[in-house]
């Protein structure tokens, strides 16, 4: 128990400054994210001042991200496939066997060709993208 108390004391000593305004700058955002990480690492117990601060900072960070890093409303199938390829460290060329050749891959990413049902199923299985996001 003393180790947890010491960790909470360290977190509490860093969080004495009251939050007086929304996050306005990238520096404030980075500071808030670091503090959230520290609070999560130290397991702020529910109902504690640290937990309340964690909750407040999370709301402020979400608001900042929504304003400064908005997610696309309706990502295209091409954007979804590109994103998942990047996440898995894969290249577009690796889709040639799944999509029926390099020209079909090229046509798909150029917006000239829609995915067929078998292609949707194979991309879903290969990349883990829900089928409804691959159908435009």
What does this 3D model show about the protein?
The protein contains eight helices and no strands. The protein has 136 residues and is mainly α. It folds into two domains: 67 residues; 58 residues, Orthogonal Bundle (434 Repressor (Amino-terminal Domain)). The model has no long low-confidence stretch (mean pLDDT 86).
Topology, please?
Layout: H1 2-14, H2 26-41, H3 49-68, H4 77-88, H5 96-99, H6 102-109, H7 117-127, H8 131-134
Helix pairs in contact: 2-3
Amount of beta strand: under 5%
Oligomeric state of the chains in view = single chain
How far from one another are the termini?
A: 55 Å
String of helices and strands: HHHHHHHH
Uncertain runs: none
Name the shape in a single word.
elongated
**By helix and strand content, what is the structural category?**
mainly alpha
Please tally the helical runs, counting DSSP H or I stretches of 4 or more residues.
Answer: 8
Compact overview of the structure:
By secondary structure, the chain is mainly α.
List keywords for this structure.
mainly alpha; 0% strand; single chain
